Amino acid sequence: MNIRKLSIIIPAYNEANTIAQLLYGVVNAPLPSGIEKEIIIIDDCSTDNTALQVRKVQQSNPNAHIIYTKKTKEKDLLYEQVSNWQTAKLS
Q: What does each of the 91 residues of the chain score in pLDDT, given as a tens digit?
């Protein structure tokens, strides 16, 4: 199996005080050569400034592949996104 992309899924709920530090750590974490990183933040209806903090990290790291999505009460975005991804079988 040849892995080319690592998807890191981060659930968040009212994490305005901690999300930026976490994201900077993940963005700067080294990976083996040839593997790209995508960071997916699933916000579970935060009522604080979590989204603003994520945007600040996105703006200060334009080359980082950071995806932010906010779950709504009407539908489960995490389920929708994950159900469309391919699953790798590890042996």
A: 687 999 999 999 999 999 999 999 999 999 999 999 999 999 988 999 999 999 999 999 999 999 998 876 555 555 565 555 544 434 3
Contacts of residue 36, defined as CB under 8 A and 6 or more positions apart, other chains included, come to: 4, 5, 6, 65
This prediction's pTM? 0.76
- Structural domain that includes position 72: 5-83
Separation between Cα atoms, residue 45 and residue 40, nearest integer Å: 15
Residue 25 lies in a domain: yes
- Look at the chain and report how many structural domains it folds into: 1
Q: Do the domain assignments include residue 90?
A: no
Q: At what angle do helices 19-28 and 50-60 cross, to 10 degrees?
A: 30
